[in-house]
Every structure is written in structure tokens, then in C-alpha cells.
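Researcher: Let's do a round of design. I'm pasting the C-alpha cells now; please hold your answer until I've finished.
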């Protein structure tokens, strides 16, 4: 699996922090500031992991998850970073969503979740 990661986050400071952390871990990073840009990138590239906020302008993170579940059910690995209510996140497809990190999240948890995806470890992190 590629060591390319897509970060989908509309808050520039959060996106910068996630990018900095993952670049230090040796990953190549692509970024999307909204859901529409993210869908375009997901359709055109094969990422080792997608770090996805759910509350996005234009196209929501939920719609991106639906697309991945429908169109690429086994080819993507998503790590959700969100402040959305847990009950909404809990409905996400566990074959696509490998970890859910609540904002504010722990840096070590982010690194572990992305490594879990890139190394194709089966199952969902708790």
C-alpha cells in the first residue's frame, strides 16, 4: 500500500498540524480543504490512508464515506478526526473506517491509526 496520505480537513491550523506530524513519520501528503476537492482526489489516486474530518464544506465527510463504501469498499482506509457526535460516527462502515479520533486527538493515536492503515492491519482500532 502506498505511503501517500490524503488529509481532508477544512480548518487550516488542524490540517497543518496533521500534515507536519505525518510528514515527520515519512509519509507523502496530499491535502483537501473541502469535501468536493477530496472526492476529486480520491477518485484520481490510491492513498494508503485518508485522514477525514466529517464536518466539511461543499461535500460532507459522511458523503465521502458513502462514496468509498459504495465505489471502493476494500481499497481505502479512513481515519476519522471529528468533533461530530459519536452516535453519527458509530454508523460508519467498519471495513472502511479503521479508527475514530475525537478532537482534540492525541498525536500518538493519529500516528498509530495511520500506520495501521498503511500496513494493512485488519480490523478497526478501538
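Researcher: That's everything. Go ahead.
Model: Designed sequence:
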Amino acid at each position: 500500500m502506498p505511503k501517500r496520505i490524503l488529509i481532508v480537513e477544512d480548518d487550516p491550523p488542524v490540517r497543518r498540524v496533521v500534515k507536519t506530524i505525518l510528514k515527520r513519520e515519512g509519509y507523502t501528503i496530499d491535502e483537501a480543504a473541502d469535501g468536493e476537492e477530496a472526492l476529486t482526489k480520491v477518485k484520481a489516486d490510491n492513498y494508503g490512508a485518508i485522514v477525514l474530518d466529517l464536518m466539511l464544506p461543499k461535500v460532507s465527510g459522511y458523503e465521502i464515506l458513502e462514496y468509498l463504501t459504495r465505489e471502493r469498499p476494500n481499497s481505502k482506509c479512513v481515519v476519522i478526526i471529528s468533533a461530530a457526535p459519536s452516535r453519527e460516527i458509530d454508523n460508519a462502515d467498519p471495513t472502511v473506517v479503521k479508527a475514530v479520533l475525537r478532537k482534540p486527538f492525541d498525536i500518538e493515536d493519529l500516528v498509530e491509526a495511520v500506520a495501521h492503515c498503511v500496513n494493512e492491519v485488519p480490523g478497526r482500532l478501538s
